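Side project, low priority. Logging it here so it doesn't get lost.
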Amino acid sequence: MRSSTLTGTRLSQLRAGMKAVIVDHEQTDLKGRLLEMGCIPGEPVWIEMVAPMGDPLAIKIAGYYLSIRKKDAETIQVALQNDPMAEME
């Protein structure tokens, strides 16, 4: 059985302009909704901007922009685009 705690880089840790690929999600009530909005493993994500106080983040994913709370972005594990393990396009 998979642990609900993820290791590695979290979406919430990225800065504006950074690109990554979604790797996995923690098991939360929001997981299903994030998957419906295109936050699926293997999907490239780009951090468009971060609000002045650090919350929320504006991301580009699946061809559209999505605003996500930092607390929710903390539940998404990503691999940076320049990481050899990341499979971007």
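Brief comment: The radius of gyration is 12 Å.
Revisit when time allows.
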